[in-house]
Every structure is written in structure tokens, then in C-alpha cells.
Amino acid sequence: SINLVNRHTDILYVIENLFEDAFYKAHINETDIGIIGHSFGAFTALTIAGARPNKRYKEDAFQSYTRAIKAVVILAPALHELFDGHIINNDTPILFFKSENDEILG
User: Residues near 40 by Cβ (< 8 Å), separated by ≥ 6?
Assistant: First the structure.
């Protein structure tokens, strides 16, 4: 479970450092970023955009996130059951893909 928390902070670290690098900063709109994740990456993408798991994790485990994320695409998200109903407490659009015959996601 600590790996899930570390993934979250690792991605935030990468995003923040891209903003500080002169080459990338010239090519990135710091206030308008999209993120895509598959499986556990989808879980991570949701938490980066502000979603908070409601079970199993300490309340402060996913407190840091970035408002720069303006769109999320999730592909067959792992641990989707940790989010009840309203996933993100803002207007971030989420595009959700799953397999038609996915027995886990339903």
C-alpha cells in the first residue's frame, strides 16, 4: 500500500520538476495538463487530480495534488472500489474506459 502513496508523490515530483526545467517549461502549459493512467496508473491519475480514496488509507495519504490537472483518462482502473460515488471534488472531467467483458469492473 505504501507503493500506491509513493506513486502519487513521485508523479507530483516529476510534474513540478518539468515546470522548473527551462526546455520543458517552454512547451508545457502549467495550468492545463491532462493525465492518463491504466490499472494502478489510473488510480494514481485520479489521486493526482484530487480524488481521495475513502477506505484503507490514512486520511492524509493523498492530500497533495495539483490543480493543474484539467482532464483525466482512466483505463480499467485498479482499486476503483476505494472511491465511492463522487470521485473528484471539482469539475475535472474524467473519461473512463473499461473492457465490455471485464468481470472485475462489471
Answer: 4, 7, 78, 79
Give the tens place of pLDDT for each residue, 5-46.
778 788 888 888 988 999 998 998 888 889 999 988 988 888
Other beta carbons less than 10 A from residue 42's beta carbon: 25
One DSSP character per residue, 4-40 reads HHHHHHHHHHHHHHHHHSHHHHTT--TT-EEEEEETH
CA-based max dimension of the chain: 46
Cell of 82: 476505494
What distance in Å separates the CA atoms of residue 50 and residue 46, rounded to the nearest whole number?
6
Q: Structure pTM? A: 0.76
Task: Tell which residue, 58, 48, 55, has the closest CA to residue 94.
Answer: 48
CB atoms within 10 A of CB 67: 11
Model confidence pLDDT, tens digit, residues 82-94? 766 556 666 888 8
Residue 62 gets the label, from left (phi > 0), alpha (psi -120 to 50) or beta, of alpha
